[in-house]
Amino acid sequence: MGGGERESAKRAAEAEEYHCHDFEWKDLRAEVEANPAFSYHLSPFPTSQQAPSSDAWTSFHRRHASGKFFKERRYLLKEFPELLNIKDCVKVLEVGCGNGSTVVPILRSSPSMTVYACDCSKETLEKANEIVCNTKGFDVKDKFYPFLLDVSKETFPDWLFCKSCQSSHARDVNPLLGSSNCSMIKEHLVFLRDNQCCVGGIDIITMIFTLSAIPFDIMPATIERCVSVLKPGGLVLFRDYGLYDMTMLRFLPHQRVGFREYMRSDGTFSYFFTLDTVRELFCASGLLELELEYCCVISVNRKNGKKMQRVWVHGKFQKPTS
């Protein structure tokens, strides 16, 4: 077995060690809802606040810019085997890439992939590019393209789903010779080559702890924007905070800003999902449900030995081929 094969086997083994059903979500729900101390989490809430600005998330990543905060999300290779050892050239869009902790395992596991990654903070994108490009074990040249975009407010640029090429061909204009598309590329994309006029659609979209960072009433439009750049038959791989996750129960009453919506002291936002909510959001955008479940993990604090019950929602959705 060669060095590359040994490394691949090692990563696969590490992924297999990840557990996602350490306890039953229904048992946790019964425990929480029977505890009077948590009653304020269950009461109705009349309104929802606006999304935090990109400055809040920029400040968040600036405070946690050290190497200790960065943790490669290798469990994704187990939870989403579609990302592992893909042979054909596949285009992935990471929505809300943050510091690149999702991008790194994707590129490491499948060198043939090309990853386009957006975030609302330019500084965060620069940090992600630094981390990804300095990670050993793979070559990111022509494989990683971060670009600035707030998906909760802005539509994706035309070059991402080939509308620009269709328009250019209709006008008989070469997009490589001064069309508005190329200027848009230079404006929005940090590291895309000048001679690439479009992407032509996305095969896989990853939304990993991204959707929960915006208010609930903006989520449907956000998902529709993502679906618009997805190829027929393409996949959305989703992972985010689930209802009654440990972090939700730690929020204080004054931090509630909506039903299942909370604002941290640093101004960043967090929503906690049920399966039904995720199903309704993604199916309303025309996607088909392939997988949807709670991931219930017991995490142990190494310093004090305290066990923490984490709840995440895992989902896979597909865009119909017709």
UniProtKB/TrEMBL annotation:
The keyword Plastid belongs to this UniProt entry's keyword annotation: no
Keywords: Methyltransferase, Transferase
Protein's UniProt keywords contain Methyltransferase: yes
GO biological process: methylation
InterPro entries: METTL2/6/8-like
Enzyme Commission designation: 2.1.1.-
Superkingdom assignment: Eukaryota
One annotated GO molecular function: S-adenosylmethionine-dependent methyltransferase activity
Similarity-based family: Belongs to the methyltransferase superfamily. METL family.
Function noted in UniProt: S-adenosyl-L-methionine-dependent methyltransferase.
Protein name (database record): tRNA N(3)-methylcytidine methyltransferase
Organism annotation: Zizania palustris (Northern wild rice)
